[in-house]
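Journal club prep — side note

Before the paper discussion, L.F. wants everyone to see what a predicted structure for a comparable chain looks like in token form. Sequence:
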Amino acid sequence: MSRGGALSRRAFLRLSRTALTAVALEQARPRSAHGQERRPRDLVVARGAEVARLDPHYSVESAALFNLYDTLVAWRADNRLHPALAVRWKLLSPTVWEFELRQGVRFHNGDAFTAADVKYSIERTYDPQAKTLVASVFTTVERIETPEPQIVRIQTRSPDPLLPARLACYGGQMLPKRYVEAVGTQGLETRPVGTGPLRFVERATGDRLVTEAVPDYWGGAIDADRVIFKAIPELGPRVAALLRGEVDLLSGLTPDHIDRVTQGPKTKVAEILMGGLYVLAVNSQRPPLDNPLVKQALSLAIDRTAIIQELWHGRGLAPNSLIPRGDRFYEEARPPLPYDPGLARRRLVEAGYRNEEIVLESTAGYLPNDRPMSEAIIPMWRDVGINARVEIVEYSVLAQKIRERSFKGLRWGGPVSTLADPDGFMWRLLSPGAPHDMWRHARFDELGRAARFSVDERFRRDAYREMTDILLEHLPMIPVLQPPDLYGLRRSIDWSPYPITLIDLRRYNLRVQRG
């Protein structure tokens, strides 16, 4: 299609989005955000999907679980590491880190938090029998020693300067050893126990997770009595609930709702550039997506500038690789991924593409703009001769397919860089045994293993540059956008978003004006 045709399609999409938004907001029925009488000191957090798993080692959920559980080290809004369950840490040798644990911390069931829990929690993440979703996080660890109840020593296979940062994100949540060994994984799913500022009360599957504040939390009780994490899949009703006062904080806001939220007398918007990317993860084991030339054609056919302008109102960045801006070794000089329909058609010819169907499985509201972006990209692919269609699926269904690695072709992902370093993004996601281990390249693996252990910054920079070149040739993930991370909230709430999309409700990041 010509550039003029593309503009016409974008104009149609813009009008359609406006109409759908208006209808959704007008049709939203007033109702309680959690089916009960709302208490004055309740805090309701609305999201696009339910909290599917309560065991943090089988989830990359970044709202409820990081408030039910604590980590040894914690990121804060200043994008720096701070003490949490560990009050201090130091290198005893190039390969041995020592962590001194906070005194007097107890799990929600009353068990004391000790070094034994740390050793158990970390070892569980990479236990081959456990098959956790975070198995690739701590593969640098050789062994863990607990010489004293409040001292943990972690020896790595080679120097790992990123270990404290690894402990601050996915996989770093601390579990009660004795409790989990008694109740098993299923018991932890049914009644989770952590040391966080919130403790589990009840879960209504598909609807809400109810938690209550821990009054004697080591970091101080949060500024609410209960926090309800409410699933409202469609953004229009989610925004309407915020405007009616039924919701206090919502995630997944898109730019076309910003004016409505900011014009509300009691609501406002919080925004930050996400420290990650929206990507199309590819099942590279399924033909014709096992052919790099086909994936190159898919990428070349995407007009990222049009998506940013029309669906994100100019917010966000067109990525140039699988290293987001803000990460170490991001290359400012590398140009954004190109839009070149003519070259896309030539790549299909070179690939011997025979009109095989390619399916994009998309949720509708789990990621902001996931469905509209899908509906914009499919015509772009068809314009260059790709037989593509979008299939809308529930997030719980897609999550199961992701775990089984059985999705049909492509699907949306919104991963964040957990370390502000390529090791916490490309290697965490694409290394052997990682969540998206559906493609292998010997040189990529060799460089990734070497770079994560190296303390030579020049070597690491060169390694990630070569790894980037490999990824942009083979495209196990197709980068589409580095988006803004947008939240709607009540004006009475003082709360800051984090680049890693973490909804941190601890008292240092949350204040609520009452009355």
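L.F.'s comment for the group: The chain is about 30% helix and 20% strand. Keep this in mind when we get to the figures.
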